[in-house]
């Protein structure tokens, strides 16, 4: 079963993101603009504030993954004022992302300073729906792309806007709102380098079924990250208590935009790779993005089952001398795959997991895989209690795992 076809009662919620292509002069695909969409049939954005931008960022990086959304192509992401001036964080590095300044942003000295700071960090800046007379000209000195509407615009006015932009070296012009062949040919004649519009491709909504993280865990994690005395073990424990949050953090750590591509064996590895500051940024945006809307509540019983397997694998690993953090991650991800009803190899396809961890999840192979096999068999009743010490240890570990997971889910 594909992720998008997961059963409706599996404790997930559906997320969406819009994607509109941008082409070069030869017609080749070079980029996508990522757009907020509230549902799979949405024709436009129903929210445009910081919450919508946060959801696009979180969904793109920690759910879909940029490599799945855009492959080797650039991604244009719209930013509101809060992100431009630094009131809300951008938890990713410059690279394949172009930061788009919306035409609705009121330009003042604070915005100018913020955009310059982002450009100095290596981010490419795009000006959306550029017009003259609203102070967006002040950003031309740091812009890499300027998007100009073509359809319905007076030709002389458009030529005037182009002339102003051409005065700045290194600015690439993007013709947008191309609706007819005449629009496209006119834009080509004006010397535009890139092209976007309904004629070349309407925004397509991509949907994905995923687990909904606990807002309580988000808040708890943020409070811990704000405490200088909190150590990595405490942070890892909070993340590990929520399967959906764990998966998001693993995806964020694996994102190509972090500038790192390391083999990750555990939640602890992900925390170390991201660092506390970037982790705090991600969790802040995750909380904000979840404000936009949730399709349904997570089934506590199913969520508890995922956590129980992860904890049981962890407990069993200790008696075998295996790394317990790896065992927890293996149990967690195998449980998430079962919960969503998707093949384990599909779930972890975009996670740079170490070989022993991925082998254990997909094939239940190796020492870690035997732990998963034992846990899965016992929880399903296929492994009879033998009455010996081993059987008693297993039964005790199972009961401890059940008790721990129920306490986590219910908050008791």
Tell me what you see in this structure:
This protein has 412 residues and is α/β, with parallel strands linked by helices. It folds into 2 domains: 3-207, Alpha-Beta Barrel (TIM Barrel), CATH 3.20.20.450; 300-410, no CATH class. It contains 16 helices and 9 strands. α12 (324-340) packs across α15. The radius of gyration is 24 Å and the shape is elongated.
How many beta-strand elements? 9
Q: How far is it from the N-terminal to the C-terminal residue, by CA?
A: 35 Å
Taking the sheet with the most strands, its summary is: 8 strands, mixed, barrel
What is the fold named in CATH at topology level of the largest domain?
TIM Barrel
Rounded to the nearest angstrom, the radius of gyration is 24 Å
The CATH superfamily of the largest domain is EAL domain
Strand content is: 5-15%
Coarse morphology: elongated
User: Which architecture of the largest domain would the CATH scheme give at its second level?
Assistant: Alpha-Beta Barrel
How many structural domains can be distinguished in the coordinates?
A: 2
Oligomer: single chain
Could you name the CATH class of the largest domain? Alpha Beta
Uncertain ranges: 1-11, 293-298, 384-389
- Tell me, rounded to a whole number, the average pLDDT: 84
**What is the helix fraction of residues, given as a range?**
40-55%
Order of helices and strands: EEHHEHEHEEHEHEEHHHHHHHHHH
Protein name: Histidine kinase
Keywords: Kinase, Transferase
Organism: Planomonospora parontospora subsp. parontospora
GO molecular function: kinase activity
């Amino acid at each position: 079963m594909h992720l998008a076809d997961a059963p409706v009662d599996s404790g997930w919620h559906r997320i969406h993101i819009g994607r509109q292509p941008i082409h070069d002069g030869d017609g080749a695909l070079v980029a996508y603009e990522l757009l907020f969409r509230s549902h799979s049939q949405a024709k436009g954005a129903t929210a445009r504030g910081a919450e919508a931008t946060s959801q696009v960022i979180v969904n793109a990086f920690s759910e879909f993954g940029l490599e799945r959304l855009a492959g080797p192509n650039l991604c244009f992401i719209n930013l509101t004022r809060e992100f431009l001036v630094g009131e809300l964080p951008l938890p990713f590095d410059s690279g394949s992302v172009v930061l788009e300044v919306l035409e609705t942003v009121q330009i003042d000295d604070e915005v100018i300073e913020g955009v310059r700071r982002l450009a100095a960090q290596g981010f490419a800046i795009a000006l959306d729906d550029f017009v003259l007379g609203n102070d967006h000209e002040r950003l031309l000195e740091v812009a890499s792309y300027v998007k100009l509407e073509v359809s319905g615009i007076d030709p002389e006015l458009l030529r005037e806007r182009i002339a102003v932009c051409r005065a700045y070296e290194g600015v690439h012009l993007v013709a947008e709102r191309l609706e007819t062949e005449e629009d496209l040919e006119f834009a080509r004649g004006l010397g535009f380098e890139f092209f976007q519009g309904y004629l070349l491709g309407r925004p397509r909504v991509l949907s994905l079924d995923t687990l909904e993280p606990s807002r309580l865990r988000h808040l708890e994690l943020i409070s811990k990250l704000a405490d200088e005395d909190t150590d990595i073990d405490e942070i890892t424990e909070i993340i590990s208590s929520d399967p959906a949050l764990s998966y998001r953090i693993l995806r964020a750590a694996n994102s190509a935009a972090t500038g790192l591509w390391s083999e990750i064996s555990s939640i602890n590895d992900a925390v170390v790779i991201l660092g506390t500051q970037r982790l705090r940024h991600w969790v802040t945006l995750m909380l904000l993005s979840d404000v936009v809307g949730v399709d349904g509540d997570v089934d506590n019983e199913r969520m508890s089952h995922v956590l129980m397997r992860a904890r049981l694998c962890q407990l069993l690993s200790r008696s075998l001398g295996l790394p317990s953090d790896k065992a927890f991650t293996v149990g967690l991800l195998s449980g998430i795959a079962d919960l969503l009803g998707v093949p384990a190899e599909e779930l972890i396809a975009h996670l740079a997991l170490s070989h022993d961890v991925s082998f254990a999840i997909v094939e239940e192979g190796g020492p870690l895989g035997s732990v998963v096999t034992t846990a899965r068999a016992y929880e399903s009743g296929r492994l009879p209690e033998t009455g010996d010490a081993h059987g008693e240890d297993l039964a005790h570990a199972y009961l401890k795992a059940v008790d721990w997971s129920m306490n986590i889910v219910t908050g008791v």
